[in-house]
């Protein structure tokens, strides 16, 4: 009686992100480990997820809202500013931590085999643990300002979160791969995170770019998924909390063209990140 032999697989290689869904229990353990390590020995613990964005918001609000007087020229500038900060911090935490996830767990990777994708993906869920409380604070501020969103704006909020999460994870997996072989990659990650806040309309209005820069630059500006995601958040959170609904100029083709383009770029980045990660993960242990 003949039996078919099981399919042989190259040692040290898996099925990419599919292995994450097939190892949900391991993913939960890795997420718990990341949270425990991050706050080990701290006094405030998870309160840091409130304190850091609060200080960041305070600095930017004083600099941009008071000194540059954007607070006077824009209704509910505090909500406008905080909605962008919340989203850009979400991007920065996923991207920064996932890009270092393989080198930070090098000791574990050299001892046992487990799907390497668990480490960058776990940082996405850790970032969500910090993102949700900040989002609740934003919602409370919006409700206190008379927030009245419609169904379309709820969809825009969800689309903004999806764009940032997918794009940041894709970039994180790309740089996590590079970081194993070239430690200079961490410096590029730091520069990208530094530029990200200013390369999107977090602190200022998108109309300033439209007025001051040539048309070709404006199109490149909106080809950045973070720019689209931030404007989707402004459209969903900030605009319904103001009286500007009738005459505020939402970016042209935001939902019809730029959002599909941003989703395409985000998922394309994730596909590229997963491809590179799978291509080189067999060499991670020996390089580390």
UniProtKB/TrEMBL annotation:
Membrane topology: Multi-pass membrane protein
The entry's keywords: Cell inner membrane, Cell membrane, Membrane, Transmembrane, Transmembrane helix, Transport
Family (UniProt): Belongs to the ABC-2 integral membrane protein family.
Major localization listed first in the record, in broad terms: membrane
Protein name: Transport permease protein
Domain of life of the organism encoding this protein: Bacteria
Domain spans labelled ABC transmembrane type-2: 44-280
Residues that span the membrane, as ranges: 50-70, 77-95, 124-147, 154-182, 188-206, 218-237, 257-277
Gene Ontology terms: cellular component: plasma membrane
InterPro entries the UniProt entry points to: ABC2_TM, ABC2_TM_bact-type
GO BP annotations, alphabetical order: lipopolysaccharide transport
């Amino acid at each position: 009686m003949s039996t078919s032999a099981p399919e042989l697989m190259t040692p040290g290689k898996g099925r990419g992100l599919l292995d994450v869904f097939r190892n949900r229990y391991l993913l939960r353990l890795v997420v718990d480990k990341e949270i425990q390590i991050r706050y080990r020995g701290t006094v405030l613990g998870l309160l840091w997820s409130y304190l850091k964005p609060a200080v960041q918001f305070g600095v930017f609000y004083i600099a941009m809202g008071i000194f540059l007087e954007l607070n006077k020229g824009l209704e509910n500038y505090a909500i406008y500013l905080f909605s962008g900060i919340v989203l850009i911090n979400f991007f920065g935490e996923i991207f920064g931590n996932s890009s270092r996830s393989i080198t930070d767990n090098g000791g574990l990777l050299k001892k046992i085999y487990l799907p390497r994708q668990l480490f960058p993906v776990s940082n996405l869920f850790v970032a969500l643990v910090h993102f949700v409380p900040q989002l609740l604070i934003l919602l409370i501020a919006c409700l206190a300002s008379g927030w009245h969103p419609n169904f379309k704006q709820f969809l825009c909020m969800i689309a903004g979160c999806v764009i940032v999460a997918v794009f940041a994870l894709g970039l994180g997996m790309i740089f996590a791969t590079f970081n194993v072989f070239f430690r200079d990659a961490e410096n590029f990650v730091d520069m990208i995170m530094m530029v990200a806040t200013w390369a999107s309309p977090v602190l200022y209005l998108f109309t300033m770019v439209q007025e001051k820069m040539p048309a070709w630059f404006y199109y490149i500006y909106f080809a950045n998924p973070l720019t689209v995601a931030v404007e989707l958040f402004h459209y969903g959170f900030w605009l319904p909390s103001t009286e500007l609904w009738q005459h505020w100029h939402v970016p042209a083709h935001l939902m019809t063209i730029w959002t599909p383009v941003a989703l395409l770029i985000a998922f394309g980045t994730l596909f590229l990140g997963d491809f590179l990660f799978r291509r080189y993960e067999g060499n991670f242990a020996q390089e580390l």
